[in-house]
Design goal:
The complex is a heterotetramer. Chain C is mainly alpha-helical. Helix content of chain C is 73%, strand content 4%. The longest helix of chain D is centred in the middle third of the chain and has 20 residues. The mean pLDDT of chain D is 90. Classes of the chains: A alpha/beta, B mainly alpha, C mainly alpha, D alpha/beta.
């Protein structure tokens, strides 16, 4: 028994030394993103984007004289996996976590990061992400409600839709967006004749669409993700429903066009400016570097948003010369117009990014985008 | 004199008890989940390995415990300690309600019906029935255990809480095995016609197994919810049930060391081989096939003959 | 009324896919008393293999009957071979082992196939070209049938009738039925049981392959883990119809497809599986061996 | 109180239109060794299955101490004191001899539902008592040496004994033996007969199906002969042996074999 205790102490001591030794030299940055699963191409883009920027920072001499190291954890876009990732990244003692892509996975991890004083920045758009007012959390995109107001205004004022159908899946993000859009449309004086839900991943949406067909709508708005949106659009036209199809921000992905095939043409997307349309030089340079390193473009603007979140944190560390997350957070809460690749980055007291704008794109025959809003 | 099983159990408990001294926090987290999963695997074993009911929906009971704690704590503000009793009792009550109409189904039919129960449970969670379950995102921000002002939030605390739960589970299993109830389950499992001719009410003992199994799984679920501070539907899906089912059969039905080994092989090994990320489940599947071909009754099959020593006279 | 008819058409389409997959389950179960958990993953494998064959041989795209027939034949052959290998390596060594060991082996085999797909084709969704079949749409009094739906309904009916005739009218089919009833007796009568089991895996896998290709063509997006969902639904269909019973699997598939479409259309797609499994449990409570299954008296 | 321990009144059992038992009547007195004989397929085992609740007869009454027990669940029948053995041995073959016999003590054990989770002083007393009883029955059948051996590893003759010991451990009022001598050699059959006598001495009524005529005639005080599910004759051994209908049934059956 005494020998066992000795061995145990020895092992514990060496473990302590090893971890203590490694913690000094590098600053770890966590990436929590869906590397596999349904949203894999978005998750991989985020991971790639972060690694690209970090490589550049390291090549320029690092941060506060230290090298940065990326630790990626795959949350598969699932809440429970996200909770496990949170524990893992906290155990790795990362300074900040970039991600995740989905609001659900982001929210599931939030509390753990907050309890362990780890910064987190995500592109999740659910309003609820900032409701706790955790000082560790920064949203690098925009709130659903902002998008909803824009969408409603476009539907009612610009297009003059009379009969609008709103569809979502069951995720809190999509339901939240659909509810806000419905409410906003009614505030604008428009009419939502049907609000339906589909089960993500079931592939067969004809049952709901057949029901919608009988209502003869002039617009179908889908607030869920591209993996379902592309199929809904294709099945809509197969069933001979003539209505316009308008997808919320999460439909903006190349796979949408592949899934919809020829039916993609004429589809509308409402999103933050997509990478190609970003007017900033920094964005153009980022896209070029990304393409050079990975041989393809990032899946969508979300990777760029997350990169901006990372850049803002790195900027704050440089300015405050501190690795204390509370100090960094205090600085970020007052950040104004930091030049990001998706435009100026400013945060509110609750970690909300301010000053974001939207566009409506129409998909052309060659699958390119055209801005159609005023 | 101690029996071989008791010695093995003691060595195992000592190793697991000292484990936090050796492990860093990441490994401690894996160790904690290992303990929780072994508890669930034992409860699955009561139903599958002992009573012989083909039950492939155990994640539902595990999830019921987890969600009971999560809902009562987050939505109703109960303390974690106060949620323990309902986290055990609700799965027990639900098992009575949903299993009793199908308990008479034979073999594979019961297997599919229990998969169905798991899927229905999952759908209730995903569809946010009564606005309680949080839909596909689940419930976040579950509290930690607080007793007399102490907060047990560190990984080591979680580990030892799970360790104690495993201890309690082993204690119950031991008591079960040496009682009329544990034996009756085996009789029903091995030959149900002979068992009922001996006066054993098959229905009663299968339900008894389900009730105890559900209760223990519920307790483990409660622990799981607190450990990760979040619960969400996919942690309790059919694939998870299949894992518990496989743990028991790969390790050895009704065998205490077998179930522990099964949990280790099915849960910890994949964690160790995380480096081979992409190929690991492929290898894992192959291993399942090979294991069943080489050891169809499990790695460490059960040995019967656990009788009082005064009866052990023979040499044969 | 035409909405109801539209739902019926939609339901029959998915129902006949379930039926094709269910036949694979029911034939294996009938002969080996084994739930072939890997069958759904074979269906998924077929969709991926078919996509690769199509894009590598007919990369210029475009609809051509030759292309479609080639893809279907090649894919069905490949999946049949995989099915036979599956039986040889994962199930045959376990024929005399405890029943649950074979179940675990089947689960392991499913994991192997699923992850092999992921390693070969990657974890992301792959998308079928939209021009494999012409995008013609038939509108019959407001009820819309696409060419693809028409093909699914037509080809699966033909395959099912062919299988029914094979099982009931040919010598080989009689041998299959004999092995299903009593393996030992069939062996004594000079039937080569191994050969029959091989034939069953060939037919079951090939039918699953056809279903897999149709899933790809009809729904376009395919993922490495989709086999599980289709497999489970098809398996439930087989049980509802009466597992081990070939017309039962066809009947069960169509019933489940229709039931699903009507539930999704008139109640909620979110509860579709709850209704599916409630139906299953109710059927099992009242008819423990399925709707068309025979009740077997137990011998004591 | 009825005069008879068990009374079968006009019992009929059908399988998919076939008549397995046809309006059968018989009466078993307390303390008897009662034989049921008849050719293969005569419906003897079906009759036992009806008595023990595995089958429910479509017609007639099964009176136990004057009360109808038709359609009562098998485990309840066992609780009433009717225990049985099987024609094809049904032991819990992976389990040890002691554990098998202990299953007979199930209905005598007074453990409460919570004793499966937590043990109480009453549990310890009950558990010890029943294991001791198990030990007594192992002693009685000469099985003590095999206490920890899995029954599947033992010879046919010993397995038959274990099955009887298991049923007897439940202290039955009526013990039903389905071909107890099948597969036994002459010595073992001899031993078996002695054991059955001992059982009778323990005030247990015995009903048995047996093809070994020497043993039946030697042991059974009264017997009923059935063929094609129907009564042919009943009486004491000497009468049965000389009855022309019985002889014909047996010879006819042998022709068919």
């Amino acid at each position: 028994m005494r020998i066992l205790t000795k061995v145990a102490t020895l092992v514990a001591l060496s473990v302590f030394l090893v971890t203590a030794g490694s913690a000094v030299d590098v600053i770890k940055i966590g990436v929590q993103a869906p590397i596999t699963g349904k949203y894999a191409n978005e998750g991989q883009s985020i991971d790639n984007g972060v690694r690209l920027v970090i490589d550049q920072i390291n090549a320029d001499g690092g941060l506060l004289g230290k090298q940065l190291e990326v630790v990626t954890c795959d949350d598969e876009g699932k809440a429970q996996k996200a909770a496990i990732c949170a524990r893992k990244l906290v155990n790795e003692k990362v300074l900040a976590v970039i991600g995740s892509y989905t609001s659900g996975a982001t929210e599931a991890a939030q509390t753990t990061y907050y309890r362990n004083k780890t910064l987190q920045t995500s592109d999740g758009t659910s309003d609820s992400l900032t409701k706790h007012k955790y000082w560790t959390f920064f949203r690098n995109s925009f709130q659903n409600s902002a998008q909803a107001t824009f969408t409603a205004n476009y539907f009612v004022k610009e297009k003059g839709y009379k009969k609008i159908v709103v569809i979502s899946d069951y995720s809190s993000y999509a339901v939240g967006l659909a509810d806000s859009v419905t409410k906003a449309i009614e505030n604008e004086g428009g009419k939502v004749i049907y609000q339906g839900k589909i089960k993500s991943g079931t592939q067969n949406f004809t049952a709901v669409l057949t029901k919608i067909k009988s209502m003869n709508p002039d617009a179908i708005y889908f607030s869920g993700y591209y993996t379902d949106g592309g199929l809904i659009r294709a099945q809509q036209l197969q069933l001979g429903i003539k209505a316009d199809f308008i997808g919320g921000d999460s439909n903006d992905n190349p796979d949408f066009m592949k899934l919809a095939g020829k039916s993609a043409e004429g589809t509308y997307m409402i999103n933050f400016p997509t990478p190609d349309f970003l007017p900033y030089d920094a964005a153009k340079k980022f896209m070029k570097d990304y393409n050079k390193k990975y041989g393809k473009d990032p899946a969508s603007v979300w990777a760029l948003m997350n990169v901006d979140g990372l850049s803002a944190i790195v900027h704050a560390v440089r300015e405050t010369k501190s690795l204390d997350t509370k100090t960094i957070s205090n600085y970020l809460h007052k950040l104004k117009d930091f030049p990001g690749i998706t435009g100026p980055v400013s945060f509110r007291e609750d970690g909300e990014r301010i000053n974001t704008k939207f566009n409506v794109y129409q998909v052309q025959a060659d699958n390119s985008y055209k801005i159609v809003n005023k | 004199m101690m029996s071989r099983t008791n010695i093995i159990a003691l060595i195992f408990l000592i190793i697991m008890g000292l484990y936090p001294l050796f492990a860093d926090s990441a490994w401690l987290a894996i160790g904690t989940t290992f303990l929780v999963f072994s508890v669930v695997a034992f409860s699955q074993d009561i139903i599958l390995g002992r009573a012989g009911a083909f039950h492939m929906g155990h994640a539902a009971f595990f999830g019921m415990g987890a969600y009971t704690t999560a809902i009562l704590n987050v939505n109703f503000g109960w303390t974690i300690l106060a949620t323990w009793a309902p986290a055990v009792l609700i799965p027990v009550i639900v098992s009575f309600i949903v299993i009793s109409p199908i308990i008479h189904l034979r073999g594979d039919y019961l297997l599919v019906a229990t998969i169905g129960i798991n899927i229905i449970f999952l759908q209730i969670l995903e569809n946010d029935l009564f606005g309680l379950t949080g839909g596909p995102n689940g419930i976040f921000g579950i509290d930690v255990l607080k007793v007399f002002g102490y907060e047990f939030f560190e990984q080591t605390h979680m580990y030892y809480m799970s360790f104690i739960l495993l201890g309690i589970t082993l204690f119950i299993m031991k008591n079960l095995d040496s009682s009329k109830f544990g034996r009756a389950m085996f009789y029903v499992n091995k030959d149900d016609v002979a068992a009922q001719s001996m006066g054993i009410n098959i229905r009663y003992y299968k339900m008894y197994a389900f009730a105890i199994g559900a209760g223990i799984a519920g307790a483990a679920g409660s622990m799981f919810a607190v450990q990760y501070s979040a619960v969400s539907p996919e942690a309790f899906d059919v694939l998870q049930s299949i894992m518990f089912f496989t743990i028991v059969l790969v390790g050895g039905s009704a065998s205490l060391p077998g179930v522990i080994i099964g949990t280790f092989v099915m849960f910890v090994l994949p964690e160790i081989f995380r480096e081979f990320e992409t190929a690991r489940y492929l290898i894992f599947g192959l291993a399942m096939i090979i294991m069943m071909i080489l050891r169809p009754r499990g790695i460490w099959p059960v040995k019967f003959g656990n009788i009082p020593s005064f009866l052990k006279k023979g040499k044969k | 009324m035409d909405i109801f008819l539209q739902q019926i058409v939609n339901g029959l389409t998915i129902g006949s896919l379930y039926a094709l997959v269910a036949l694979g389950y029911t034939m294996v179960y009938g002969v080996m008393k084994l739930i072939n958990f890997a069958h759904g993953d074979l269906v998924a494998l077929s969709a991926f293999a078919g996509l690769t064959i199509y894009t590598s041989i007919f990369s210029n795209g475009g609809t051509s009957i030759v292309a479609v027939i080639t893809v279907f034949l090649f894919t069905a052959m490949i999946i049949a071979v995989v099915g036979v290998l599956l039986e040889r390596f994962a199930y045959k060594p376990l024929r005399t082992a405890p029943r649950l060991s074979a179940v675990v082996s089947a689960l392991g085999a499913g994991l192997v196939i699923q992850n092999a797909i992921m390693l070969i084709w990657g974890p992301n969704m792959k998308i079928f070209p939209s021009d494999l079949f012409p995008s013609t749409v038939y509108d019959i009094n407001g009820v819309v049938i696409t060419f693809t739906q028409f093909m699914i309904l037509g080809l699966s009916s033909i395959l099912m009738i062919a299988l029914y005739l094979f099982i009931n009218k040919t010598k080989m089919g009689t041998a299959v039925r004999a092995v299903a009833i009593n393996q030992d007796a069939a062996q004594l009568m000079g039937i080569n049981v191994n050969k029959i089991i091989m034939i069953i895996f060939i037919i079951g896998s090939a039918l699953g392959a056809v279903a897999g290709l149709f899933i790809g063509i009809y729904y376009r997006g395919i993922t490495f883990d989709m086999g599980w969902m289709y497999g489970l639904n098809a398996f439930v269909a087989a049980i509802i119809g009466g597992i081990g019973n070939i017309p039962g699997a066809m009947f069960g598939g169509l019933v489940l497809g229709l039931f699903n479409a009507l539930i999704s259309g008139y109640i909620s797609s979110a509860w579709a599986e709850t209704f599916t499994f409630t139906l299953l449990i109710v059927v099992l409570i009242f008819r423990p061996t399925g709707i068309l299954g025979e009740t077997v008296a137990e011998k004591v | 109180m009825s005069k008879y321990l068990l009374e079968i009144k006009n019992v009929s059992k059908f399988f998919a239109g076939l008549t397995a038992i046809d309006s059968l009547n018989l009466k078993v007195k307390k303390g008897q060794i009662y034989g049921i004989i008849g050719p293969n397929g005569a419906g003897k085992t079906t009759l036992f299955n009806c008595i023990t609740g595995i089958y429910t007869p479509e017609k007639g009454e099964i009176l136990w101490n004057g009360k109808d027990i038709k359609g009562v669940a098998p485990h309840k029948i066992a609780e009433l004191g009717i225990l049985r053995t099987f024609q094809t041995i049904r032991l819990f073959s992976e389990m040890s001899v002691a554990e098998n016999i202990m299953s007979g003590r199930h209905i005598k054990s007074k453990q409460k539902w919570y004793n499966g989770i937590i043990h109480t002083p009453a549990y310890y007393k009950d558990e010890k008592y029943n294991w001791e009883k198990t030990g007594e029955y192992m002693e009685l059948f000469g099985l003590s040496d095999y206490a920890t051996t899995p029954t599947g590893d033992l010879s046919y003759g010993i397995q038959r004994k274990i099955e009887m010991a298991r049923a007897l451990a439940a202290e039955p009022k009526l013990l039903i033996l389905d071909e107890p001598a099948a597969g036994l050699n002459e010595n073992e059959t001899q031993e078996l007969a002695e054991i059955i006598r001992k059982i009778q001495a323990m005030e247990t009524t015995v009903m048995m199906i047996e093809h070994n005529m020497d043993m039946v005639m030697n042991l059974c005080e009264y017997m009923t002969v059935i063929n094609f599910g129907a009564w042919i004759y009943d009486g004491v051994a000497a009468d049965v042996q000389n009855n022309p209908a019985v002889i014909e049934a047996y010879i006819g059956a042998e022709d068919e074999d």
